Amino acid sequence: MDKLANPAPGYQRNPDKVITVEPYRGNVTVRAGDTVIARSTRAKVLSEPPYPAAFYIPFDDIDFSKLVSTEHSTHCPYKGDASYWSIQAAGEAGKNAMWAYEQPFDEMTEIRNHGAFYANKVTVEATPD
């Protein structure tokens, strides 16, 4: 069944908006300074022009002991409501550095239980296979 034939409540349909999610073939490491926050061989790449592509890393590959959840949230009409985490050791620079769509719209289930990081708050190293 076409997921867009019966969109999830709240999902905004826009034929000009193309969002793709594909597996990344390689290793992705996220660091705050010298501290590794995440390391994965199972990351996904979400492309949503005009924004830069973002790596979404499975929760199992993220060290949540280095993060603290925040009250900050945002809403995307295509993905749903995002929750945020700060990197404890990074102080103000790490505030709301990671986001995730814990209950994304049905059209974006590929990113459920995955987190993404702001590239201006962490170092993201991607090494293709």
From TrEMBL:
Protein origin, superkingdom: Bacteria
Domain DUF427 positions: 28-119
InterPro entries from the UniProt entry: DUF427, DUF427_sf
Gene3D superfamilies noted in UniProt: Domain of unknown function (DUF427)
Record protein name field: DUF427 domain-containing protein
Species annotation: Mesorhizobium australafricanum
